[in-house]
Structure formats: C-alpha cells, structure tokens
Amino acid sequence: MKNVSALENIHKHGLFGNHDSKDELINIREIKDVLIYQIVKYKKSSISINKIKIDNLNLPETLLVSSNKNTRILWMGPDNWLVVSKK
C-alpha cells in the first residue's frame, strides 16, 4: 500500500512571489516518519512529573522545551505536553 501525502494534491513546484530581488524563498517540506504524542496528567494522579523521562529528557516546566537529536517535548499548558519523536 502506498502512503499518500496530505500535500500531494496542492503542492506545486516553482518560484512564487517577488523572487528576483530576494536572496531566499520560503521552503516548505513535509517531515515523514515522525511520532506525535500528547501527555496529560490526571488531577488525581499520584505520579510525580519529575520522575518521568522520555528519551532521557525530563518533562519541561512552564513555557519551556526539552529536546535532543531525536525527540522534542513542548510544554503546552499546566500538566499538558506534546512529544514529537523519530523513535
């Protein structure tokens, strides 16, 4: 079975906008083979957030991001994180 990209029907190759006087154009690319998870702590949970590690990264505190070569963890709100990983 073939994977179909969400951009397959709308992606058009070429130069757009005022590209003659610009040094760089916008480069849009699709990242494949990435896993995306959302972690949410329940109100009645007794597990400490400080003890949780994902790919040797702690869950970040307010308005911070933790990352390494394969994984990025984004704080999204109180007791709510988004994990993007190639593993």
Query: What overall form do the CA principal axes indicate?
Result: elongated
SSE arrangement, N to C: EEEEEE
Tell me what portion of residues adopts beta-strand conformation: 25-35%
Residue runs with pLDDT of under 50 for 5 or more positions? none
The chain-level structural class is mainly beta
Sheet bearing the most strands, described?
Answer: 4 strands, antiparallel
The overall pLDDT, averaged over residues, is 83
Give me the Rg, rounded.
19 Å
DSSP E strands, number: 6
Helicity level: under 10%
Distance between the termini: 22 Å
Total of helices:
0
As laid out across the biggest beta sheet, the strand order is: 1-6-5-4
Summarize the structure.
The protein is an all-beta fold and 87 residues long.
List the main descriptive attributes of the protein structure presented here.
single chain, 87 residues, mainly beta, four-stranded antiparallel β-sheet, two-stranded antiparallel ribbon, 6 strands, 0% helix, elongated
